[in-house]
Amino acid sequence: ASPARRLLFLPGTYPPNLSLLLSRSQSAVSVPRDFEGCSTLRKYLGQLHFLQSRIPMGNGQDAAVPVTWTEIFSGKTVTHEDIKYEQACVLYNLGALHSMLGAMDKRVSEEVSCTHFQCAAGAFTYLRDHFPHSYSVDMSHQILSLNINLMLGQAQECLLEKSMLDNRKSFLVARISAQVVDYYKEACRALENSETASLLGKIQKDWKKLVQMKIYYFAAVAHLHMGKQAEEQQKFGERVIYFQSALDKLNEAIKLAKGQPETVQEALRFTMDVIGGKYNSAKKDNDFIYHEAVPALDTLQSVKGAPLVKALPVNPTDPAVTGPDIFAKLVPMAAHEASSLYSEEKAKLLRDVMAKIEAKNEVLDQFMDSMQLDPETVDNLDMYNHIPPVLMEKCAALSVRPDTVRNLVQSMQVLSGVFTDVEASLKEIRDLLEEDEAQERKLQELLGRVPPAPASPPGLAEVSKECSKYLELHEKASFTNTELHRAMNLHLGNLRLLGGPLEQVRAALPTPSLSEDDKQVLQNLKRILAKVQEMRDQRMSLEQQLREMIQKDDITTSLVTTDRSEMKKLFEEQLKKYDQLKVYLEQNLAAQENVLKALTDANVKYAAVRKALAEVEHKWNTTVQTLVASYEAYEDLMKKSQEGKDFYTDLEGKAAKLLERA
């Protein structure tokens, strides 16, 4: 990593956000060699990314300033008026720092070292794929590819150590080791490239020698474990050739290890003891015990590597890594315009979805209206288990007036008595008048003359006139009295029922009689109606979620840091967040056809049950209305009965006087 630094900003006074960035850039010059140093570099990288999207500081742009770094191989300073060069150098140092931390780790936990090496590979990969390679020698495509494979090789080494310590299966360990070899072979190819050799100079030979030593060493480890697998499978001839190959490769590694530190030499000697012992033992056993043919190595299947590591991606705009955007309030007009375009994309998405929802809702509403199925009343069996409140109220009112029926009967009996007395008096008067008239005719016949009928005496004429009047009144009242008695007889039984025990009232109300098949049909219909409602509720919920999600969706911050050429791609990626909701809605809408088909079939079976329930419900309502009407008629009956008694009492007095006069 480059220790030298440059001037990114000229001396002077800066706005608060630029002052903060300047402070961070100074912190990024010589970061501590720990995780905090990595965090500092990542935060600074993110803020640089936020800055370049707002201020024209790129190559040839108006606000570009000179950026100077020291090239790592030659030690020369390199200057570019391009903020992307600053980002590239920070990325390079981030990868270098992660690699140093991975190498410095004491291997207390292989995962820590492995993660550092993968992060280093990620930084170099992002640098190689997103920045120009012409900035400096150490940022050429070949050098960065070399760095990436060196990092991945070391990360795979960490997992190899762990798998060996965990006593994993020999074949798995062999494949992991073979992948280490593959990564280092890629690195070696990059080192052998003429361009790389000229760029690296003298260190190219040292690096190549070290990488080749590692290739032979880990190839030896891979064949050692392939020999152990052959031993487990009792393939003793294969075991010998694998151990022999491992021994040969280890010898090559030892030759290339001259000049390496003592720790490396010690590791090679230990490995030689292990592989040499394994080979000698295997050869001796096969020569004296098993006598299996030893195949040629090239006749055996080669060991394919198992890549268990990858370059961990770098995201310079991840707020969890970069911290808050210190330039958040600086939103370019282009970002506002792009935000409007994105809003239109969201609106289009919502319109498309709502068109489908409304079409399905219209079909559903028309279908349900034609069915005339109300989920609340389709199953009204529960109402037959209770006396309706209006009837309970009447029963309660009669329970505190136990003499209701008796009073009504007595009142009607008194009325009947007076009625009879009046009728008898009027009949007697009429009989007297008819008798007088008959005697008068008889007298005239005896006298032998038939003169015109003599005028009745004035008093008798008045009696006759009044008698006719009273008879007419009595005849009219008689009809009313008959109707009153009929009404009383009609309501009397109901009043006795309402005044009796509640069990009798409940027993008098009609109840449906359904078979088990009928009940099953009803339950099935209720279940499907519940499905229809569930479908409606889910649809409304998903629609509401979609609306809220669209309303809260603001990607202005992302638009600020995105190049105009990448806007369409960003829109597509951002709109993918709605895919899951759209899938749920599509499933809901697609289910409607099957649900309505099932409802149609259930409704056909329900027709007979529906008719029977409707008839019982009609009878129930009629009975309840009749009982309520009887209660409400009681007061009217008592009133009319009293009026009848008053009328006949008066008429009785008049008839009595008229009878006396007659």
Automatic annotation (TrEMBL):
Q: Which SMART domains match?
A: BRO1 (SM01041)
Q: Which InterPro entries match?
A: ALIX_V_dom, BRO1_dom, BRO1_sf
The protein's matches in Gene3D superfamilies, at most eight in alphabetical order, are given as: alix/aip1 in complex with the ypdl late domain, alix/aip1 like domains
Instruction: Give the chief site where it resides.
Output: cytoplasm
Keyword Secreted in the entry? The reply is no
One of the GO biological process terms: protein transport to vacuole involved in ubiquitin-dependent protein catabolic process via the multivesicular body sorting pathway
**Keywords from the UniProt entry:** Coiled coil, Cytoplasm, Endosome
Question: What GO CC annotations are associated with the protein?
Answer: endosome
User: From what superkingdom does this record's organism come?
Assistant: Eukaryota
Boundaries of each BRO1 domain copy? 26-364
Q: Which residues form a coiled coil?
A: 419-449, 525-552
**Location within or outside the cell:** Cytoplasm; Endosome
For this entry, the protein name equals PTN23 phosphatase
Give the source species: Malurus elegans (Red-winged fairywren)
